[in-house]
Amino acid sequence: MERRDAMVTLTWQDDFRLEGVTRGGKVTSIDGDGQAGASPTQLLLEAIGACSAIDVVDILRKGRQPLEGLTVEMGGERREEPPRRYTRLRLRFRVRGDVDRAKVERAVALSLDKYCSVYHSLDPELRETAQVEIVIEP
User: Fold this and answer.
1) What is the pLDDT of residues 69-99, one digit of tens each?
2) Cβ-based neighbours of 110, under 8 Å, separated by 6 or more
């Protein structure tokens, strides 16, 4: 399998704003103040949630589960002093559809234990403090 290396270019705009552009030309607004775009730490939460959500959707589809919707709510606690890294993560998976709870739990576990490369790029201590909640909605 061919390895796909990530490549982005960040260009300072003004104040704490940056524009990120992927190799494919996709643009992201980043703002250290979180006003004109997501802050870098918010983007990290989005990246973890998106990576895991994609895994969960893929696993449930392969398991022929009738998934109708998925929302991942992310939160985190950060240190007060620099570096203000995350010390705890919270992930809430809201799943809609007539899905088997055990299969959703397995999909989430597989994502976080094995597949989600963003999650596995984090400090193992942080990963150990993650709290996961799964909510199945009709």
Assistant:
1) 999 999 999 999 999 999 999 999 999 999 9
2) 55, 59
Can the peptide bond before residue 83 be classed as cis, meaning omega within 30 degrees of 0?
Answer: yes
Q: 136 with 95: CB under 8 angstroms?
A: yes
Domain 40-137 class in CATH: alpha beta
pTM (two decimals)? 0.89
DSSP code string of 6-44: --EEEEEEETTEEEEEETT--EEEEETTSSSSB-HHHHH
Structure confidence by residue, pLDDT tens digits, 18-32: 999 998 999 999 999
Which strands, in side-by-side order, build the sheet including 86-97? 67-78, 86-97, 131-137
The Cα–Cα gap between 16 and 38 comes to 11
